[in-house]
Specification:
Length: 423
C-alpha cells in the first residue's frame, strides 16, 4: 500500500509512475475521498471540542441553560452523523488504496512488457548434445517418473503425478535446497500453514486484485497459499519488532496453489505451469536503508542453487511494464532447458519496499524509544521445483534415455547416480 500522504502531496509523480507500469489506479477518486475525509474529520473535531467546552460551562451553572442543552443535543446528533459518514469514507478509501500498485524504483528500466526486460548476465555454458534432446514431457513417461494421464484422471487438467525416482528426485532437491539456504546462506527454516486468512493475502498484495487466481474455502475464510511468502511474511503482521531483530531471513518449503486460468492456452504440455506445485521460498524483513543490498544478496542466494546444479542460468531485470503488482524492483533467475528450448524462470526476487509492511502493519524500532518505522520486505524462490525438475531432466539426459543425477543431489538419494531407462 502506498502512503496516502505521498499520494496527496505527489499526485503527478504517482500518475507518471503508473503510466510507466502500464497500470491504472483510482487516484482521482482517492484524492477526492481524502479531501472529503479531512473535511468531515475537521468538522467533527471542531464540534467535539465545542461540546467539551460547553459541557464544562453547563456543569458550572446553578441554573441550567435549557437552550444550550438543546443545542448540545443537536451537536451530539451531528457528531454521530459525521462519525458514521467518516467511517464509510475511510472504508471506501482503504479499499481504493488496495488497488494501487507499488511504484517502481527509479533504477528500474522503463519498458512496455517482458520484451523490454534486460538480461544482466548469463552464467555457464549451455550443455551441448550429440543427439536431439527430448523434452521432459517425453522423458518423464518414458522413464515412468511422471504420469500425466493419472494426474488428469485424479484432479483434471494441469495436474500430474511424480512417481518412483521422479518423486524421490524432487524430494531430494527440496531437502538439499533447504540445507543450502540454512547452512550456507544463514536462513532460519520455517514450516508454515498452507491455508491462510484473507487478511494475510491482503497484507502481501494478493487480495483483492488477484482473488480469481486463488483457491478459497469460504466458510472458514481460508485460502490456499499461492506461495510461502504469504504466511511467512504475515508471521509478523501487526507487530513492532524490537531493536536489533533485523534482518529476519526465513526459508520455507511449501506446496503452492494457483488457478492458472489466466494462462489458458499457454504451456499446457508438461509440468511448467500447474495448479499445484512445490517451492522453496526465501523471505527477508530488513531495515529500509539496507533493502537494495539485500535484494542483490537474495538474487545471489537463488542463483547459487543453479550454480551448484551446474546448469546454465541467466539473471534478468524486469522493466516497469513487467513488474509484479507489489514489487518496486524485481529480478528473475532463469535456467536453460534444452528439450523445450527455453529459459525457465525458477526464481523471481523482489524488493517490495514498505508496500507490504504498510498493508500488514509490520514495523520495527531502530533503537529503544525510537519511533516505529515500517520494515522493507523481500522474497524470492530458492527455487521453484517444477522448472528445476525440467532443467535437471533435460540437461542431464543421456542418449539412451537415462538421466544422470546431479552430483550435489546424490547424497540425498543414497548415492544413486542415474535414473535408469525402462528398456
Amino acid at each position: 500500500m502506498l502512503d496516502l500522504k505521498f499520494i496527496r502531496e505527489h499526485p503527478d509523480e504517482v500518475r507518471e509512475a503508473l503510466a510507466k507500469l502500464n497500470e491504472t489506479a483510482p487516484i482521482d477518486e482517492i484524492l477526492a475521498l481524502d479531501t472529503q475525509r479531512r473535511e468531515l474529520l475537521a468538522e467533527a473535531e471542531a464540534l467535539k471540542h465545542r461540546r467539551n467546552v460547553v459541557s464544562k460551562e453547563i456543569g458550572r451553572m446553578k441554573e441550567k441553560d435549557q437552550a444550550l442543552i438543546a443545542e448540545m443535543r443537536e451537536v451530539g446528533d451531528r457528531i454521530k452523523e459525521l462519525d458514521g459518514k467518516l467511517a464509510q469514507v475511510e472504508e471506501e478509501l482503504d479499499q481504493l488504496l488496495l488497488l494501487v500498485p507499488n511504484l517502481p524504483d527509479p533504477s528500474v528500466p522503463v519498458g512496455r512488457d517482458e520484451s523490454d526486460n534486460v538480461v544482466l548476465r548469463t552464467v555457464g555454458e549451455s550443455r551441448q548434445f550429440d543427439f536431439e534432446p527430448l523434452a521432459h514431457w517425453d522423458l518423464g513417461p518414458m522413464l515412468d517418473i511422471i504420469d500425466f494421464e493419472r494426474g488428469v484422471k485424479v484432479s483434471g487438467t494441469r495436474f500430474y503425478v511424480l512417481k518412483g525416482l521422479g518423486a524421490r528426485l524432487q524430494r531430494a532437491a527440496i531437502t538439499w535446497m533447504m540445507d543450502v539456504h540454512v547452512k550456507e546462506h544463514g536462513y532460519t527454516e520455517v514450516y508454515p500453514p498452507f491455508l491462510v486468512l484473507s487478511k494475510c493475502l491482503v497484507g502481501t498484495g494478493n487480495l483483492p486484485k488477484f482473488a480469481d487466481n486463488l483457491y478459497r474455502y469460504e466458510p472458514d475464510d481460508l485460502w490456499m497459499i499461492p506461495t510461502a511468502e504469504v504466511p511467512v511474511t504475515n508471521l509478523y503482521r501487526d507487530e513492532i519488532l524490537a531493536p536489533g531483530s533485523l534482518p529476519i531471513k526465513h526459508v520455507s518449503y511449501t506446496a503452492c496453489f494457483r488457478r492458472e486460468h489466466m494462462s489458458a492456452g499457454r504451456d499446457t504440455r508438461g509440468i511448467k505451469r500447474g495448479h499445484q506445485f512445490d517451492k522453496v521460498e526465501l523471505v527477508r524483513l530488513v531495515e529500509p536503508d539496507a533493502s537494495a543490498e539485500h535484494l542483490e544478496e537474495l538474487v545471489r542466494d537463488a542463483a547459487r542453487v543453479a550454480e551448484l546444479l551446474e546448469i546454465s542460468y541467466r539473471v534478468v531485470e524486469m522493466c516497469t511494464g513487467d513488474l509484479a503488482f507489489s514489487a518496486m524492483k524485481k529480478y528473475d533467475v532463469e535456467m536453460w532447458a534444452p528439450g523445450v528450448e527455453e529459459w525457465l524462470e525458477v526464481s523471481s526476487c523482489s524488493n517490495f519496499g514498505d508496500f507490504q509492511a504498510r498493508r500488514a502493519n509490520i514495523r520495527y524500532r531502530a533503537e529503544q524509544g525510537a519511533k516505529p518505522r515500517f520494515v522493507h520486505t523481500l522474497n524470492g524462490s530458492g527455487l521453484g521445483l517444477p522448472r528445476v525438475m525440467i532443467a535437471i531432466m533435460e540437461n542431464y539426459q543421456q542418449p539412451d534415455g537415462r538421466i544422470v543425477i546431479p552430483e550435489v543431489l546424490r547424497p540425498y538419494m543414497d548415492d544413486l547416480e542415474v535414473i535408469p531407462s525402462m528398456s
